[in-house]
Amino acid sequence: MTRSGPGFMQYDSQYPLYGLSFSHSPSHPHRAALTTLHPGPSNKLLVVDTKPGEASDELHSIASVNLTFPATKVAWEPAQSVAGNAYTNGQTELLATTGDVLRIWDLGRDWKGDTSRGYVGRGGAGGGGGYETEQYVLNTRSVLTNSKSPQTSLPPITSFAWNPDKPESIVTCSIDTTATLWDINTSQAITQLIAHDRAVYDLAWLPQSPDIFVSVGADGSLRAFDLRQLEHSTILYESPGSNPLARIAFSNTEQHMLACFGLDDSKTFILDMRSPGQPVAELMGHSAPLGAISWGGGPPDSESGGGWIASCGDDCQLLLYDLTGPLPAPRQEAKSQTAKSSSPANYAFSPPATPNDAQSPPPAKAAEIMPAKAWTADSEIVNLAFTDSGNQIGAISGSKLSILDI
Can the keyword Aminoacyl-tRNA synthetase be found in this entry's annotation (predicted)? Predict the structure, then answer.
């Protein structure tokens, strides 16, 4: 991965950036949603893209809108939802952001050039100029909150996950220990549950499942929830010393494989849902705390494996690991009580109770894997994401978005 030349694209904003998500629209493979990280009520949601109809590596801001608080996460609607609206040719797409509330945004064409609604055209705000002939606007489609009054402040939402197989469903998590399932078509909360003993930091849907999601939090546990049986949750993994777990992500090619890392940790743990009591691998190479992880794809002819996975951190490094081959088999003798009580083979999480005293073996026995490729930024890399094709990866450092070929 190189800093310049073919296979390298860059967008330089006038704002410090944090959030990053790439569109799932085949018509706009490099369209990215960005959010800023600035103290006070002067943050933005930006959308950048290449100019249509041109083989250009230049990214331009095409739309922006003000945010009261920094967004904790931004994401485009799932690919299945985009495919359902194929007749729009990518001209209308949905985005979601979280922070104080869950907001659903509509990105559409705007030929009127009405700057009062978030339009950015020629030389518009956000840095990098704008389209000369095509213009877009970001409109608020809905604001989802449990607050009965606009003046009532709620605990911050730390993250969310959009269900790829049921695009009307989004689950959010909060520092108040809860997870909330939303129906964005009705803008109503379907259910809210106490997910952890302390703050919940991140969650993800089990691939190819409309009912099961997992979460991690400040109590150091990784838990699974089945919407069909919410009376119980399953503790799949507990970090040594109950070190808070910060992020989690499922492989795009292997349903049972997931990755997570702890707060202020420099290693990524790879877990196998079929035997989740301890990590099967540790991804090494960083010298400072991690900021984000993301899975890509793998070669069509690759053996069974999780694909490429990338991590970034405060050491200014983006490290890429090749997990396209089989990982070491899980140690069957090291299963925890929690893992035995669940049914991970068919992912029907319905244990009779959630044990509180299950202890996972230390992760030191896991295989250590070093990166296959690396890239160094000018400053700390706070976020990353693969493009929908999986052939490129974007990284956020300072006010820059860099997109590199794998």
Answer: no
